[in-house]
Amino acid sequence: MAKDVEVAERGSFSSKDYHDPPPAPLIDAEELTKWSFYRAVIAEFIATLLFLYITVLTVIGYKVQSDVKNGGDDCGGVGILGIAWAFGGMIFILVYCTAGISGGHINPAVTFGLFLARKVSLIRAILYMVAQCLGAICGVGLVKAFQKSHYNKYGGGANSLNDGYSTGTGLGAEIIGTFVLVYTVFSATDPKRSARDSHVPVLAPLPIGFAVFMVHLATIPVTGTGINPARSFGAAVIFNQSKPWDDHWIFWVGPFIGAAIAAFYHQFILRAGAVKALGSFRSNPTV
After folding, report:
1. What distance in Å separates the CA atoms of residue 255 and residue 179, rounded to the nearest whole number?
2. Within 10 Å of residue 241's Cβ, how many Cβ atoms?
3. What angle do helix axes 229-239 and 108-116 make, rounded to 10 degrees?
4. What is the pLDDT of residue 224?
5. What residues contact 162, with CB distance under 8 A and at least 6 apart?
6. Which residues contact 28 (CB under 8 A, 6 or more apart)?
7. pLDDT along the chain (287 residues), means of 10
8. Which residues of 80-98 are buried (b: 16+ CB within 10 A; e: fewer)?
9. 197-223: string of b/e by CB count within 10 Å (b at 16+)?
10. Which candidate, 42, 102, 186, 233, has a CA 20 to 30 Å from the CA of 76?
């Protein structure tokens, strides 16, 4: 029995019960001529705008309701658990809404990881990141426009390293947190999983949203939880104070490192991309 399984695992690629999409070209100028490409960019902009608007508004609302000095209650508001649910829940909703249009990235780190895995072209990756950052700025800008006094008083939802934690700890939290998220994205959207586990229906946005929720529970006390450079950038631009800007590099370097590690782990270890490439190379006749 074990031998049969081994033979099946080592079978030719033609016997696979799933098909990987072809790698995206590094530069695909033809994309720029298609409306579907611009529609996807717009979807990323709107999704990130809505994500930042709801989540930052939740953070500000919690701080207002729990401010004892201004009539609040220590146990008032949604708490850290509620904030984590807001972030995870919005990702679940927005990925579900936009996955069929843009892929539902809503995060430059996710886009970067998918680019490294050759799931998107360089042109698409760059324009997605630009759209995400602009959407984040607009989303936080709406929060400030509607609640300016509370926004300025309670930190604007900006990410920064909390007191008592070293830079290394904050960077590590962002790397590991983003690894969890991007690894989940790869796993939830893996065509091999869809084929082999078709008897177990998996709604991809659900585990992705839960990953965001769990990471926020763990890292809100450390960095306020970035794991999304657009989220950190939008809040820093609108709040525009020295502390968030001093720590801002953590929220780009950490997520990009975490995304790169997740892409490598999934593509080259779990999916044995390096082994397949080497086997294909060895199987080619010498010219």
Report:
1. 8
2. 13
3. 150
4. 95
5. 221, 222, 223, 224
6. 121, 123, 124
7. 44 55 85 94 98 96 84 77 96 96 96 96 97 98 93 92 96 98 94 61 86 97 97 97 95 98 93 55 46
8. eeebbbbbbbbbbbbbbbb
9. eeeeeeebbebbbbbbbbbbbebbebb
10. 233
Cα gap 9→171, rounded to integer Å: 39
Q: Pinpoint the alpha helices (H) of the chain.
A: 2-9, 35-65, 79-98, 108-116, 122-146, 148-153, 167-188, 191-196, 205-223, 229-239, 242-246, 250-264, 273-283
Q: Which two tokens stand for residue 36?
A: 């579907």
Q: What is the pLDDT of residue 91?
A: 97
Q: What 3 state SS string does 65-96 have?
A: HCCHHHCCCCCCCCHHHHHHHHHHHHHHHHHH
Q: Which residue has the tokens 């950190």?
A: 232
Q: What is the model's pTM?
A: 0.86
Q: Give the torsion through C-alpha atoms of 190, 196, 199, 204, to 10 deg.
A: 0
**pLDDT of res. 233:** 98
- Both structure tokens of 207: 């585990």
